[in-house]
Amino acid sequence: MTDPGMKCSRCKEPARHRFRQHNARFCDPCLEIFFLRQVEKAIEKYAMLTPGQRVLVAVSGGKDSLALWQALIKLGYQAEGLHLKLELGDFSGVSLDSSREMARRLGSPLHVFALSDLAGCTVEEAARANRRQFCSVCGTLKRYYLNRLALELGAPAVATGHHLDDETGRLLGNLIHGHAHHLERQWPVLAEGPGLARKVKPLCRLGADEIRAYAKAHDLPVAQGSCRHSKGATLPYYQEAMRLLEQKMPGTKLDFYLGFLRAKAGPPAADAPDGVCVVCGAPTHVEVCGACRLVRRAFERRQRLAEEAAAAAAAGDEAQA
Ligand code: AMP
Ligand code: ZN
Questions:
Q1: Alpha carbon of 55 to those of 153, 162, 250: distances in Å?
Q2: DSSP one-letter string for 34-62
Q3: Residue pLDDT, tens place only, 200-212
Q4: Is the pLDDT confidence value at 13 over 90?
Q5: How many Å apart are CA 222 and CA 251, to the nearest integer?
Q6: Cα-to-centroid distance, 250 and ligand 1 (Å)
Q7: Is it the case that residue 1 has pLDDT exceeding 70?
Q8: Is the model's pLDDT at 131 over the cut of 90?
Q9: What percentage of the chain has pLDDT greater than the value 70?
């Protein structure tokens, strides 16, 4: 969406990027200034981090988390990467390679953990055993282990690469379905509490197109491909609806999101569950937390399958005798 002869809105040199939502055109160096300013603005406005603070960046290997990691380092934060190996086929291997390459470029530590080692079962086993939408099971387990690892690694905050398209898609879905609790808690920062690490989304003011342009301008080692389970997700439908509105009326996404945040009295109160999970000790409103329930059902299913296989083998032996 760029025209030859287009000039940068800031420096008047030839521009490579055009963002209609800001009525702006940028060359690569001015895109960098714009991008870092947007991240800084989000961090300051919502008091996400203190200057130079240590922060764990949840790195998937996609453009969003790689761009976020680089931006936080450039802004002077001690940003370390944390990658969860999800073991979902070739894409997971590519994602880890991208995360490692980015760590090498930045000269920053990358902490890597396999979800199956942490949970004792794979995401696929958990999804099958619970008969729930794959992305929802994967999301619950990822959030749970990112939080736990942040606490174990002593990091005061976890940053994720969620951006404006993620937040407006989620907001539209929550409004359509009247998810009052989610609307109440939707905010770019979730405060820390006992057993809960602080969660921040410093890319919340930037759209996927702006992040893509930044990743391209820096030739970031972005993992190519997509998760083999992503087809079942519903968020892309809401994002598609937002994209259509944005295309017809540039600036709609930012207006929608910032307007929603402005209408709130302030950040939601820190989540303060009244109990702890009897299995893992994490804060929860119920006896066994959501992640432990998912894992427990995966173990139960594994045991049932083993018993059925043993019974079938015994029946086969008897028939042969
Ligand atoms: P997604 O839910 O896949 O759209 O990812 C949203 C954000 O979660 C990413 O931008 C990352 O910050 C984080 N994330 C997703 N997958 C992983 C992973 N395997 N390891 C660490 N962080 C992840
Ligand atoms: Zn638990």
A1: 10, 16, 33
A2: HHHHHHHHHHHHTT---TT-EEEEE--SS
A3: 999 999 999 999 9
A4: yes
A5: 27
A6: 27
A7: no
A8: no
A9: 99
**Tens-place pLDDT, residues 252-288:** 999 999 999 999 988 998 888 889 999 999 999 999 9
Burial 218-235 (b: 16+ CB within 10 A, else e): bebbbbeeebebeeebeb
Ligand 1 atom 15, closest CA: 60
Domain range summary for the chain, segments of one domain joined by +: 28-272, 275-321
pTM of the model: 0.94
248: pLDDT strictly greater than 70: yes
Residue for token digits 């996404």? 253
Q: How many helices (H) and strands (E) does the chain have?
A: 12, 10
Residue 193's identity, in one-letter code, is G
Q: Which ligand is in closest contact with the Cα of 161? A: 1
State the pLDDT confidence band at 2, using cuts at 50, 70 and 90. low
Pair 45, 176: CB distance under 8 Å: no
Residue 85 DSSP class: E
In the chain, the N- to C-terminal Cα span, in Å, equals 74
Q: What is the best residue among 55, 63, 65, 141 to mutate for testing ligand 1's pocket, by most ligand atoms within 8 Å of CB?
A: 65
Looking at the DSSP bridge assignments, the partners of residue 193 are 196
* Burial class (CB within 10 angstroms; exposed 0-12, middle 13-18, buried 19+) of 269: exposed
Judge whether 62 and 226 are in contact, CB under 8 Å: no
d(CA 302, CA 201): 37
Assess contact for 164 and 212: CB atoms under 8 A.
no
The residue with greater pLDDT, 90 or 189, is: 189
Third-level CATH fold of 28-272: Rossmann fold (3.40.50)
Residue 19 CA to residue 21 CA, distance in Å, equals: 5
162 within ligand 1 shell (Cβ under 6 A): yes
Type of residue at 295: V
Q: 319 pLDDT exceeds 90?
A: no
